[in-house]
Amino acid sequence: MDVSSHPNAKGLKAFFEGIHTLFATVPYRVTAKKEAYFHGIMHIVPMLTGRRVFSEVATNRGRMDTVPENGDTVFIFEFKVRGRAEDALAQVHALDYPERFAKTGKQLILIGASYDMEARDVREWKVVQVFFSRTFAEPIVAH
């Protein structure tokens, strides 16, 4: 369930299937109906695989939920409890979170995910890959 070994939409499907299985093993009595619960697990999972992981990463316009890094790839996760995965990605774009990494030369993978509090599981997720030109901070977006 290593996020870094899944650097594209197809591989992230396997990652989120692993997250689904993980949530299925947690008894409902020990879960919380808060975004922080989901956020905490999504921080811990990549960290357990040896990745550098940062949460609540501030920019000049907002705060990214979770940011695991692996070599030349940065994953920007944005979570929604009362919204859709598309809403999470819209926030990433509206607040220009990728700009923080524009000059790093790293591949960015933006991931919007929604958590269903009643089902205590990931409801949906969407992925966008972003590549920055080495000479200009102009994103090339691939869906």
Question: Can you give a write-up of this model?
Answer:
By secondary structure, this protein is α+β, with helices and mostly antiparallel strands. The chain has one domain (3-142): Trna Endonuclease, Chain: A, domain 1 (3-Layer(aba) Sandwich), CATH 3.40.1350. Helices cover 28% and strands 34% of the residues. It has 3 helices and 6 strands. The chain has a 6-stranded mixed β-sheet, with helices on both faces. The longest helix is centred in the first third of the chain and has 16 residues, at 9-24. It is globular and about 45 Å long.
List keywords for this structure.
143 residues, alpha+beta, Trna Endonuclease, Chain: A, domain 1, six-stranded mixed β-sheet, 28% helix
SSE arrangement:
Blueprint: H1 9-24, H2 35-48, E1 52-58, E2 63-70, E3 73-80, H3 85-94, E4 107-116, E5 121-132, E6 139-142
Parallel strand pairs: 3-4
Antiparallel strand pairs: 1-2, 2-3, 4-5, 5-6
Summed up, what is this model?
The protein has 143 residues and is α+β, with helices and mostly antiparallel strands. The protein contains three helices and six strands. 28% of the residues lie in helices and 34% in strands.
Mean pLDDT equals: 83
CATH architecture grouping: 3-Layer(aba) Sandwich
How many domains?
1
What would you report as the Rg, rounded to the nearest angstrom?
Answer: 15 Å
Please report the total strand number as a whole number.
Answer: 6
Helicity range: 25-40%
> What is the H/E order?
HHEEEHEEE
Q: State the end-to-end CA separation.
A: 22 Å
The residue ranges in which pLDDT falls below 50 over 5 or more consecutive positions are 134-140
Q: Please outline the major beta sheet.
A: 6 strands, mixed
Might you state the CATH topology name? Trna Endonuclease, Chain: A, domain 1
Per CATH, the class reads Alpha Beta
Strand content: 25-35%
Oligomerization state: single chain
Number of helices: 3
